[in-house]
Write a structure and sequence with these properties.
The two termini are about 20 Å apart. The protein is built from six helices and two strands; from the N terminus they run ααααββαα.
């Protein structure tokens, strides 16, 4: 039988390695690559933060009804799907933005436009929606880590 301590530790580790922090931090650049300019990338990225907060509430309320394992597995499947969809859209439909980046933003080194750009933005939002319930709430990360090792 696997010890409960490594399960709690690796749940925390894999939670941080999902790419969510990177996605939230660099989302303005991803949106800039998707032809949003001016303040639009910043405004669009703020939608992700609001979405994350709103979708955390159902997980806090219903995690015991849904079960931890199904919530974790469905969230992981959704995050995998949307991240691969982002990569699958950026590679064939995008192109290099040149040495100055898109709109002179060096971090926006790739450019994508049209319907695929809208799909990249949608996949980014869906990635956040898949991540919020199982991962960023206390119920699965911290709860699993603490409840796997009883105090007595």
């Amino acid at each position: 039988m696997i010890s409960r301590t490594p399960i709690g530790v690796f749940t925390q580790i894999w939670s941080h390695l999902t790419g969510m922090n990177v996605m939230m931090y660099y989302t303005t650049y991803v949106f800039a690559m998707a032809c949003l300019s001016g303040n639009n990338p910043l405004a669009s990225s703020s939608i992700q933060y609001v979405l994350k907060v709103i979708l955390t509430v159902p997980a806090l309320l219903f995690i015991d009804r849904w079960g931890r394992r199904p919530t974790l597995l469905l969230g992981t499947l959704g995050m995998t799907t949307w991240m691969f969809a982002n990569g699958g859209l950026l590679k064939p439909y995008g192109h290099s933005a040149g040495p100055d980046g898109r709109n002179h933003t060096l971090e926006a080194s790739w450019s994508i436009s049209g319907s695929p750009a809208k799909a990249v933005i949608a996949c980014s939002y869906l990635f956040v929606a898949s991540h919020a319930p199982p991962r960023r709430t206390g119920p699965l990360n911290s709860h699993w880590a603490t409840s796997s090792r009883p105090l007595s």
